[in-house]
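Handoff note, outgoing to incoming analyst
You'll be picking up this chain. Sequence as last confirmed:
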Amino acid sequence: MLIVSFTPVLEWWTNALARPWDEPGGGTLIVLGSDANQDIVGEHSYWRAVYAVWAWRSGGFEQVLISGPESMRGFLVANGVPAARIRVEDRSRSTRENALFTATLLAGAGGRKTLLTSDFHIFRAARAFRKAGVDVIPHPIPDAGKRICNRRLRWAVFADLVEETTKIAYYRARGWI
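Most recent structure output, in case you need it:
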């Protein structure tokens, strides 16, 4: 309990899952949805959408591909991303499906592909996309990294990191990454 509450172990763990990454720009920005349904954007999806808007504004992307709920599209449009530049893949229910269904949509598409998702999720997501044949440049957002600063949220971050590490092991065992 003391280790999780008062040491930098969560920061180290988060950084290990988040590195390496590159600056976004050009080509296609792939944004992964998370905890949302068709009508409401959940907390993780909200922050991913916020960072997608910022990346769009600064990165010179040609298009945004959302792999997740349609509700994220509305958020991006409301914040200045042109609707004609957004594509949505809304069938996926897992990171593996995000990768497989996105690979189908991007088949034959050239250019740089930047993957935007949470810092603790980028390790598994980038590898799943590469396994599906989509060479992505990881661009994690500071999801767990920001929540670690609040002592009340550290246990939620710990739970996210344990869950994500378990999923990494499962994906490895299945040969999905």
